[in-house]
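To assess whether ligand presence alters the predicted conformation, the chain was also submitted together with NDP. Input:
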Amino acid sequence: MRVAFLGLGDLGILMAGHLVRPPFSLTVWNRTESKSRQFAAEHPVRVSMSPGEAVRDAEVVVTCLPSSAEVEAVLHGEHGMLESLAKGAVLLDCTSGDPATSRSIAAELSTRGVGFIDAPVSGGTTAARGGTLTVMWGGSREDFVRVRPVVEAFGKKIVHAGPVGSGDALKAVNNALLAVHILSTGEGLAILVKAGVDPGVALDVINASSGRSNSSENLIPQRVLTRAFPRTFRLALLDKDIGIAASLAAELGMETPVITLAAKRMHEARAALGEEVDHVEAVKMIEAENGVVIR
Ligand code: NDP
Protein backbone atom coordinates (compact mmCIF):
# COMPACT_ATOMS: atom_id res chain seq x y z
CA MET A 1 0.00 0.00 0.00
CA ARG A 2 1.51 3.33 -1.08
CA VAL A 3 1.42 5.78 1.83
CA ALA A 4 2.63 9.37 2.13
CA PHE A 5 3.24 10.80 5.61
CA LEU A 6 3.45 14.57 6.09
CA GLY A 7 4.64 15.96 9.42
CA LEU A 8 7.44 14.24 11.33
CA GLY A 9 6.96 16.09 14.64
CA ASP A 10 7.07 14.72 18.19
CA LEU A 11 4.12 12.44 17.42
CA GLY A 12 4.21 12.01 13.64
CA ILE A 13 7.71 10.59 13.52
CA LEU A 14 6.71 7.80 15.90
CA MET A 15 3.52 7.03 13.95
CA ALA A 16 5.40 6.97 10.65
CA GLY A 17 7.80 4.46 12.21
CA HIS A 18 5.02 1.84 12.02
CA LEU A 19 4.64 2.31 8.26
CA VAL A 20 8.21 1.65 7.13
CA ARG A 21 7.79 -2.01 6.23
CA PRO A 22 5.53 -4.10 3.96
CA PRO A 23 2.69 -4.03 3.19
CA PHE A 24 3.44 -0.29 3.21
CA SER A 25 5.66 1.62 0.84
CA LEU A 26 6.30 4.97 2.53
CA THR A 27 7.15 8.44 1.28
CA VAL A 28 7.71 11.20 3.85
CA TRP A 29 7.70 14.97 3.72
CA ASN A 30 8.56 17.34 6.54
CA ARG A 31 8.84 21.13 6.46
CA THR A 32 12.30 20.94 8.00
CA GLU A 33 13.96 18.62 5.52
CA SER A 34 16.76 17.49 7.84
CA LYS A 35 14.20 15.53 9.89
CA SER A 36 12.98 13.54 6.89
CA ARG A 37 16.58 12.94 5.80
CA GLN A 38 17.42 11.65 9.28
CA PHE A 39 14.31 9.42 9.22
CA ALA A 40 15.30 8.06 5.80
CA ALA A 41 18.80 7.31 7.06
CA GLU A 42 17.21 5.00 9.63
CA HIS A 43 14.35 3.48 7.58
CA PRO A 44 13.74 2.37 3.96
CA VAL A 45 11.55 5.31 2.92
CA ARG A 46 11.54 7.92 0.14
CA VAL A 47 11.94 11.60 0.95
CA SER A 48 9.94 14.18 -0.98
CA MET A 49 10.79 17.83 -1.40
CA SER A 50 7.20 19.09 -1.35
CA PRO A 51 3.73 17.97 -0.20
CA GLY A 52 2.62 17.78 -3.84
CA GLU A 53 5.47 15.48 -4.81
CA ALA A 54 4.97 13.29 -1.73
CA VAL A 55 1.33 12.46 -2.41
CA ARG A 56 1.48 11.96 -6.18
CA ASP A 57 1.12 8.14 -6.20
CA ALA A 58 -0.22 7.67 -2.69
CA GLU A 59 -3.32 5.63 -1.94
CA VAL A 60 -3.37 6.96 1.63
CA VAL A 61 -1.98 10.33 2.72
CA VAL A 62 -1.45 10.84 6.46
CA THR A 63 -1.06 14.36 7.85
CA CYS A 64 0.07 14.99 11.44
CA LEU A 65 0.47 18.75 11.74
CA PRO A 66 -0.09 21.24 14.58
CA SER A 67 -3.56 22.40 13.56
CA SER A 68 -6.03 22.45 10.68
CA ALA A 69 -4.46 25.73 9.49
CA GLU A 70 -1.27 23.87 8.55
CA VAL A 71 -3.30 21.11 6.88
CA GLU A 72 -4.94 23.81 4.76
CA ALA A 73 -1.49 25.25 4.03
CA VAL A 74 0.00 21.96 2.78
CA LEU A 75 -3.13 21.40 0.71
CA HIS A 76 -3.37 24.81 -0.94
CA GLY A 77 0.10 26.34 -0.54
CA GLU A 78 2.88 26.45 -3.11
CA HIS A 79 3.68 22.90 -4.28
CA GLY A 80 0.72 21.79 -2.16
CA MET A 81 -1.15 18.50 -2.32
CA LEU A 82 -4.40 19.52 -3.97
CA GLU A 83 -3.50 19.11 -7.62
CA SER A 84 -1.46 15.96 -7.00
CA LEU A 85 -3.88 13.86 -4.96
CA ALA A 86 -4.97 10.88 -7.03
CA LYS A 87 -8.64 10.18 -7.53
CA GLY A 88 -9.57 7.39 -5.11
CA ALA A 89 -6.94 8.41 -2.55
CA VAL A 90 -7.94 9.19 1.04
CA LEU A 91 -6.49 11.93 3.24
CA LEU A 92 -6.23 10.56 6.79
CA ASP A 93 -5.72 13.67 8.91
CA CYS A 94 -4.27 12.70 12.31
CA THR A 95 -3.88 16.33 13.31
CA SER A 96 -5.99 17.35 16.32
CA GLY A 97 -7.88 19.72 14.05
CA ASP A 98 -11.01 21.79 14.16
CA PRO A 99 -14.30 20.31 12.96
CA ALA A 100 -15.33 23.17 10.66
CA THR A 101 -12.05 23.19 8.71
CA SER A 102 -12.12 19.39 8.44
CA ARG A 103 -15.64 19.54 7.02
CA SER A 104 -14.64 22.17 4.48
CA ILE A 105 -11.54 20.19 3.39
CA ALA A 106 -13.64 17.01 3.09
CA ALA A 107 -16.20 18.82 0.92
CA GLU A 108 -13.51 20.23 -1.37
CA LEU A 109 -11.74 16.87 -1.75
CA SER A 110 -14.96 15.00 -2.45
CA THR A 111 -15.45 17.04 -5.63
CA ARG A 112 -12.17 15.52 -6.82
CA GLY A 113 -13.00 11.95 -5.84
CA VAL A 114 -10.64 12.08 -2.84
CA GLY A 115 -11.82 10.86 0.57
CA PHE A 116 -11.18 12.51 3.92
CA ILE A 117 -11.12 11.13 7.46
CA ASP A 118 -10.33 13.23 10.54
CA ALA A 119 -8.48 10.83 12.82
CA PRO A 120 -6.93 12.52 15.83
CA VAL A 121 -5.19 10.24 18.29
CA SER A 122 -4.61 10.02 22.03
CA GLY A 123 -2.12 8.19 24.21
CA GLY A 124 0.82 10.51 23.59
CA THR A 125 4.32 9.63 22.50
CA THR A 126 4.40 6.41 24.58
CA ALA A 127 1.40 4.92 22.74
CA ALA A 128 2.66 6.28 19.42
CA ARG A 129 5.96 4.50 19.93
CA GLY A 130 4.20 1.27 20.92
CA GLY A 131 1.62 1.39 18.11
CA THR A 132 -1.16 1.46 20.71
CA LEU A 133 -2.74 4.86 20.07
CA THR A 134 -6.44 5.44 20.51
CA VAL A 135 -7.83 6.72 17.21
CA MET A 136 -11.14 8.62 17.10
CA TRP A 137 -12.21 9.03 13.52
CA GLY A 138 -14.89 10.97 11.71
CA GLY A 139 -16.06 10.22 8.19
CA SER A 140 -17.66 7.56 6.03
CA ARG A 141 -17.13 3.86 6.55
CA GLU A 142 -16.44 3.57 2.81
CA ASP A 143 -13.42 5.89 3.13
CA PHE A 144 -12.32 4.26 6.38
CA VAL A 145 -12.10 0.78 4.83
CA ARG A 146 -9.43 2.15 2.49
CA VAL A 147 -7.25 3.51 5.32
CA ARG A 148 -7.89 0.79 7.91
CA PRO A 149 -4.51 -1.03 7.52
CA VAL A 150 -2.69 2.26 8.14
CA VAL A 151 -4.79 3.10 11.20
CA GLU A 152 -4.29 -0.42 12.59
CA ALA A 153 -0.51 -0.08 12.18
CA PHE A 154 -0.37 2.65 14.86
CA GLY A 155 -3.74 2.35 16.60
CA LYS A 156 -5.14 -0.11 19.13
CA LYS A 157 -8.49 1.30 20.21
CA ILE A 158 -10.12 2.57 17.02
CA VAL A 159 -13.48 4.27 17.40
CA HIS A 160 -15.88 5.77 14.87
CA ALA A 161 -16.99 9.10 16.39
CA GLY A 162 -19.48 10.05 13.64
CA PRO A 163 -19.40 12.15 10.45
CA VAL A 164 -16.37 14.24 9.40
CA GLY A 165 -15.36 16.59 12.22
CA SER A 166 -16.58 14.31 15.01
CA GLY A 167 -13.09 12.95 15.73
CA ASP A 168 -11.78 16.51 16.03
CA ALA A 169 -14.63 17.49 18.38
CA LEU A 170 -14.06 14.48 20.63
CA LYS A 171 -10.31 15.06 20.75
CA ALA A 172 -10.75 18.75 21.61
CA VAL A 173 -13.07 17.95 24.51
CA ASN A 174 -10.78 15.18 25.80
CA ASN A 175 -7.89 17.62 25.82
CA ALA A 176 -10.02 20.34 27.42
CA LEU A 177 -10.49 17.88 30.30
CA LEU A 178 -6.73 17.26 30.38
CA ALA A 179 -6.11 21.01 30.65
CA VAL A 180 -8.71 21.36 33.43
CA HIS A 181 -7.10 18.47 35.34
CA ILE A 182 -3.57 19.87 35.05
CA LEU A 183 -4.65 23.36 36.13
CA SER A 184 -6.96 22.26 38.95
CA THR A 185 -4.53 19.68 40.34
CA GLY A 186 -1.70 22.24 40.10
CA GLU A 187 -3.78 24.79 42.02
CA GLY A 188 -4.83 22.22 44.62
CA LEU A 189 -1.25 21.14 45.26
CA ALA A 190 -0.08 24.77 45.42
CA ILE A 191 -2.65 25.37 48.19
CA LEU A 192 -1.44 22.31 50.07
CA VAL A 193 2.26 23.21 49.77
CA LYS A 194 1.51 26.69 51.13
CA ALA A 195 -0.54 25.09 53.93
CA GLY A 196 2.51 23.00 54.84
CA VAL A 197 1.47 19.62 53.39
CA ASP A 198 4.10 17.62 51.50
CA PRO A 199 2.87 17.27 47.86
CA GLY A 200 4.02 13.64 47.69
CA VAL A 201 1.89 12.84 50.73
CA ALA A 202 -0.98 14.83 49.24
CA LEU A 203 -0.84 12.90 45.96
CA ASP A 204 -0.66 9.60 47.84
CA VAL A 205 -4.01 10.44 49.42
CA ILE A 206 -5.60 12.08 46.35
CA ASN A 207 -4.67 9.07 44.21
CA ALA A 208 -6.45 6.77 46.66
CA SER A 209 -9.43 9.15 46.67
CA SER A 210 -11.97 10.76 44.39
CA GLY A 211 -9.84 13.74 43.34
CA ARG A 212 -7.50 11.58 41.23
CA SER A 213 -6.95 11.81 37.47
CA ASN A 214 -4.22 10.92 35.00
CA SER A 215 -2.65 14.25 35.93
CA SER A 216 -2.47 13.36 39.64
CA GLU A 217 -1.56 9.70 39.07
CA ASN A 218 1.05 10.11 36.35
CA LEU A 219 1.84 13.56 34.98
CA ILE A 220 2.42 15.49 38.20
CA PRO A 221 4.34 12.79 40.15
CA GLN A 222 6.54 11.92 37.15
CA ARG A 223 7.14 15.40 35.78
CA VAL A 224 6.46 18.09 38.39
CA LEU A 225 7.63 16.53 41.66
CA THR A 226 10.79 15.32 39.91
CA ARG A 227 11.16 18.70 38.10
CA ALA A 228 11.97 16.62 34.96
CA PHE A 229 9.34 18.26 32.68
CA PRO A 230 10.14 16.17 29.56
CA ARG A 231 8.80 17.63 26.30
CA THR A 232 6.28 15.17 24.86
CA PHE A 233 3.34 17.42 23.93
CA ARG A 234 3.73 21.14 23.52
CA LEU A 235 1.68 23.43 25.74
CA ALA A 236 0.94 25.49 22.62
CA LEU A 237 -0.90 22.47 21.16
CA LEU A 238 -2.95 21.94 24.32
CA ASP A 239 -3.84 25.64 24.24
CA LYS A 240 -4.99 25.13 20.64
CA ASP A 241 -7.07 22.06 21.61
CA ILE A 242 -8.93 23.62 24.53
CA GLY A 243 -9.45 26.71 22.34
CA ILE A 244 -11.18 24.47 19.77
CA ALA A 245 -13.42 23.01 22.50
CA ALA A 246 -14.31 26.48 23.82
CA SER A 247 -15.04 27.78 20.29
CA LEU A 248 -17.19 24.76 19.54
CA ALA A 249 -19.21 25.38 22.70
CA ALA A 250 -19.64 29.04 21.72
CA GLU A 251 -20.70 28.09 18.16
CA LEU A 252 -23.30 25.78 19.67
CA GLY A 253 -24.57 28.61 21.89
CA MET A 254 -23.59 26.86 25.11
CA GLU A 255 -22.52 28.04 28.56
CA THR A 256 -19.31 26.22 29.56
CA PRO A 257 -17.59 28.58 32.03
CA VAL A 258 -15.12 26.00 33.41
CA ILE A 259 -13.75 25.15 29.97
CA THR A 260 -13.79 28.82 28.94
CA LEU A 261 -11.74 29.83 32.00
CA ALA A 262 -9.31 26.91 31.60
CA ALA A 263 -8.83 27.94 27.96
CA LYS A 264 -8.01 31.50 29.07
CA ARG A 265 -5.52 30.17 31.64
CA MET A 266 -3.82 27.87 29.10
CA HIS A 267 -3.53 30.84 26.76
CA GLU A 268 -1.89 32.87 29.54
CA ALA A 269 0.50 29.98 30.27
CA ARG A 270 1.46 29.82 26.59
CA ALA A 271 2.08 33.58 26.50
CA ALA A 272 4.21 33.39 29.65
CA LEU A 273 6.16 30.20 28.91
CA GLY A 274 6.46 30.16 25.13
CA GLU A 275 5.85 27.85 22.17
CA GLU A 276 8.33 25.10 22.95
CA VAL A 277 7.57 24.06 26.54
CA ASP A 278 5.73 20.88 27.50
CA HIS A 279 2.03 21.07 28.47
CA VAL A 280 2.64 20.03 32.09
CA GLU A 281 4.83 23.12 32.53
CA ALA A 282 1.57 25.10 32.83
CA VAL A 283 1.93 24.26 36.53
CA LYS A 284 4.94 26.62 36.62
CA MET A 285 2.58 29.55 35.98
CA ILE A 286 0.57 28.63 39.08
CA GLU A 287 3.77 28.19 41.11
CA ALA A 288 5.09 31.60 40.02
CA GLU A 289 1.79 33.35 40.78
CA ASN A 290 1.71 31.89 44.28
CA GLY A 291 5.38 31.81 45.22
CA VAL A 292 5.48 28.05 45.76
CA VAL A 293 7.31 25.11 44.18
CA ILE A 294 5.53 21.75 44.04
CA ARG A 295 8.32 19.27 44.76
P1 NDP B 1 4.99 19.07 16.75
O1 NDP B 1 4.85 20.50 17.02
O2 NDP B 1 6.05 18.29 17.44
O3 NDP B 1 5.23 18.81 15.17
C1 NDP B 1 4.47 19.45 14.22
C2 NDP B 1 4.83 19.02 12.82
O4 NDP B 1 4.17 19.91 11.92
C3 NDP B 1 6.30 19.09 12.48
O5 NDP B 1 6.60 18.09 11.53
C4 NDP B 1 6.42 20.48 11.86
O6 NDP B 1 7.50 20.59 10.95
C5 NDP B 1 5.14 20.53 11.09
N1 NDP B 1 4.73 21.91 10.81
C6 NDP B 1 4.59 22.93 11.68
N2 NDP B 1 4.17 24.04 11.04
C7 NDP B 1 4.07 23.72 9.74
C8 NDP B 1 3.69 24.42 8.57
N3 NDP B 1 3.33 25.72 8.62
N4 NDP B 1 3.71 23.77 7.39
C9 NDP B 1 4.07 22.48 7.32
N5 NDP B 1 4.44 21.74 8.38
C10 NDP B 1 4.42 22.36 9.58
O7 NDP B 1 3.56 18.41 16.98
P2 NDP B 1 3.20 16.93 17.43
O8 NDP B 1 3.85 15.96 16.53
O9 NDP B 1 3.36 16.81 18.91
O10 NDP B 1 1.60 16.96 17.19
C11 NDP B 1 1.04 16.81 15.90
C12 NDP B 1 -0.47 16.79 16.08
O11 NDP B 1 -0.83 15.69 16.92
C13 NDP B 1 -1.03 18.05 16.75
O12 NDP B 1 -2.28 18.36 16.21
C14 NDP B 1 -1.16 17.64 18.22
O13 NDP B 1 -2.14 18.41 18.88
C15 NDP B 1 -1.52 16.17 18.08
N6 NDP B 1 -1.19 15.31 19.21
C16 NDP B 1 0.07 15.32 19.79
C17 NDP B 1 0.36 14.48 20.86
C18 NDP B 1 1.70 14.43 21.51
O14 NDP B 1 1.84 13.72 22.52
N7 NDP B 1 2.73 15.12 21.01
C19 NDP B 1 -0.67 13.58 21.40
C20 NDP B 1 -1.92 13.59 20.68
C21 NDP B 1 -2.17 14.44 19.65
P3 NDP B 1 8.97 21.08 11.43
O15 NDP B 1 9.70 19.82 11.77
O16 NDP B 1 9.50 21.78 10.26
O17 NDP B 1 8.77 22.00 12.63
